[in-house]
Amino acid sequence: MPEIARLILDGKTYELPVLTGTEGEKAVDIRRLREESGYITLDDGYGNTGSCQSAITFIDGDQGILRYRGYDIQELAEHSTFIETAWLLIYGELPTVEQAEGFSALLTEQAMLHTDTLHHFEGFPEHAPPMAILSAMLNVMACQHPELLKIENEAQLLMGSAKIISKVRTIAAFAYRKSKGLPFNDPHPDYKYCGNFLHMMFSIPYHHYEVHPDIERALNLFMILHADHEQNCSTSTVRIVGSARTNLFTSVSAGVCALWGPLHGGANVEVVQMLDEIVKTGKNPREFIERAKDKSSGFKLSGFGHRVYKNFDPRARILKASVEKVLKIVGIRDKSLEVAMQMEDLALKDPYFIERKLYPNVDFYSGILLRAIGIPADMFTVMFAIGRTPGWISNWKELLDQGGRINRPRQIYTGKTLRPYVGREDR
Ligand code: ACO
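A: This is the predicted complex of the input protein with acetyl coenzyme *A.
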């Protein structure tokens, strides 16, 4: 017997089907509610709304579980590479040796930017935020590839995905070089994805950057952990834009814009700024905890809390362990890590944080890791964007495969009711 929910409105009973996901999550299907009753449901911020059915990523926020295509994040973090994970997200299965090698070769082939697009970098001011450059350049790619604006077969999907995944890394590195007034480094065909990014960022004329395998591994880990996170703000944005059958480049560009915000991907920068302030001024971390608890301050403890996780964000745990390892390799004692651990300790014992189930999220330790690798704070969010790109692409693909309707929420209108137009002289 299919499960049914009953809703009584104005004395009439409506039967609503109940859907169950493969992990047992339940949803009341209200898709026909308005048509049948005239009512809509209201859920600002979509905290209680399933916007789609998806087979890509599973999160159990109460248990602190994250899985891509059924694989636990901890296992992927230990054994996979970013590129393999990207394939897994987009195509649903881990790649065979042949598929992995083919994809890797395609990404290497696609790493360069078309020379016609390079002059765009000259137009950006020196301090242009890399997220603005990345979103703009993705639309430049849309201009460059009219043959990929409509993806109608597997070959086009593979080429569009490879171009975007490979080139977002080149664009990000070039944005950094531009900000430093340094010449661009062409991607090196001998390097793999993360090593090549480090080379494009840090090699300078006559001084080739030596890619340390453990640092390359740590960057892979960072990217894997950020690769997808079901219907978060930027991914939902990609799906909304994509639902209008907007091309892949522009839909991903919209995801970059959404990610830029400080409540989303921008939080990793805020965390490091806060930790640095504490280290530099010698302020007591407790002061920040108290300020976060005071609603009138408007201050939130960046890197804490999550819409879905009401337990440890598993990504934060993995990152914390990696930070300690990388700091040892590079031989740096970063005091901000000590402050971060102190803050975590204070927050986890504080009733305000306990009652609201506020735990460190992925952004709490990611900035310290990136800084240990040598990546400056203004590049943190763009690093997140590089990592999230396969997730955006896989969600865009899934949406199109499902052939869904254009996304178009409704609203409850609270403005003025009908009134006559007032001539200018009478206002
Ligand atoms: N510091 C202090 N209080 C907090 C924090 C925080 N970081 N996060 C949530 N709260 C409080 C809220 O004020 C609210 O309190 P109330 O019940 O007394 O009103 C309660 O905890 C519930 O939080 P919501 O605001 O309902 O949580 P929501 O799901 O809307 O927001 C968010 C989630 C945006 C992540 C929020 O926790 C936050 O702003 N955190 C800091 C920014 C951050 O780290 N963002 C990165 C998120 S992860 C990511 O995008 C990769």
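The chain has 18 helices and six strands. The pocket of acetyl coenzyme *A is lined by residues 263-265, 267, 292, 300-307, 356, 358, 361-363 (CB under 6 Å).
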